[in-house]
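job 3f2a | input accepted
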Amino acid sequence: MRLALIGTGLIGGSAAWAMKNAAVFDAVTACDLSLINAQCAVRMGIADRATTSVAEALKDADAAMVAVPVLAIPKVFAAMAPHLRAGMPVTDVGSTRCSVIEGARKGLGSFFADYAPVHPIAGGEMPGIEYADAGIFKDKKAISTPDEGMGEAARVFWEDAWSACGSRIERMSPEEHDEIFAAVSHLPHVLAYALVDAMAKTANASKKFSLVGAGFKDFTRIAASSPAMWRDICLANREAILRSLALFEREIHEIYGMIERSEADAVSEVFERASQARRT
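job 3f2a | predicted structure (280 res):
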């Protein structure tokens, strides 16, 4: 089987590589707006063909995976539709579900029945095909989000493909997915970017950065991720992220007040509660 990989970044490249190694696919066509990126996938052994044309990528493909920034996915689906065949499994690996699924419903038209999205909970802070790693999905969760109008055959195909990569499949609704990942993934990225940006604006910022310890590095590691990708995620999952930000804002305001009033017991209670939650 041949996979058409539309978008050759870290996650798409890693996924195509893992599925090829697992014999889900024996050939991959890498399609990217940047021919350099697509050719890099070929040099790395992930793909055997490179193109900038969606039509060319889909010409003899048996399945298609879209791995582009989430705000671009609906446009890619619309571009793919004239070149798809009935029964050809289509997926995407985006980090948001509701807006992307709605884009698929409109863009894919009758081919929506052959679509089943899966969000792999894996990755790295450094973007780009050159950082692709076929092993990053082993023993990690992959979230399948079936919705009305999606066919059973496509869902089974892609869940089996991710299982072959060593992923553990978990199913949930698109709405539950977006609410959960706004809290546990999207919010932490917003906070990491915000902390680094705030520090960079302060006096003697370069000296402060030269003295950061493990805590700051661990907390802000993900701020090295692709800004364009995370901008798109924030806009695509805006309402859920705003709800998570509002909860965090209230928590920070409460802790600010405790510290301002030197309320040692109250601060200890918050820190102890958080420490216990983190260890469980």
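job 3f2a | Residues 2-172 form a domain with the Rossmann fold fold (CATH 3.40.50.720).
job 3f2a | closed
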